Amino acid sequence: MNLNRETILQLAAHLEGAELGVHDVLKITGDHPDMDWDDAYAIQEEIRLRKEARGNKTVGLKCGLTSFAKMKQMGVETPVFGFVSDYMARPDGGEIKTSELIHPKVEAEICIVTKAPLKGPGCHIGAVMAAIDFVLPAVEIIDSRYRDFKFDLKSVIADNTSASRFVVGGRARDADELDLRTLGVVLEKNGEVMTMAAGAAVLGHPLTAVVMLANHLGARGQEIPAGTFIMTGGVTEAIAVKAGDNVAVRFQDLGTVSMRFV
Ligand code: 0L1
Ligand code: MG
User: Which of 69, 146, 179, 186 could be bridged to 151 by S-S, CB 3.0 to 4.6 A?
Assistant: First the structure.
């Protein structure tokens, strides 16, 4: 690590302040060019601790930048990992207030809930398949705190991978009833198809993202506990939304997830 504890704490307060105060900031590597990956995840961890100290519950883990479309959109080549909190959840079919967000975008995600712990290193797709309780569809609303979404990977990790809001659909399925690679997803905004893809767009198989998450945490001496909700990352590129927009994402075999931005 290259940053001292005081700087880590100050950057966590700076980025979380931008999230909660709904204002953008410049990417933090501008002022801290020596920041390394461990520093970035340490800042994210401090943001999580700040939320938990305030009474917010961490309710899931997220994989980001896992699809080729998103990597291309953002000009990066490596996935990132973050978390979601209880206050970020919104009901399927409900409203999302844009006044609480800076510049939201939506992306369709295939999610799982585990029934057994997963621990890397050495986690593999078979271990993930054995540990899945059920599969759920979701839409993530990302809202980078960085001005005009201009950032680098370390800045994004520190900013909890742009986590902001998420909507989970209510139709759970057993993983062995689904082929997650060929599972089709169509994202509509105001009744118009904006983008579509299949699960294989996420690293060839969405569960590869979970393997990478387990190995990432394992390298830090952590595991994914049983009962964890995990978002495997946007299948398509992210689509910008504004007040007045209606979004519906149709997941093959998993139903539709919808929301209205007000
Ligand atoms: O969920 C994600 O794919 C994380 C995206 C982080 C970068 C962005 O804000 O697009
Ligand atoms: Mg995402």
Answer: 146
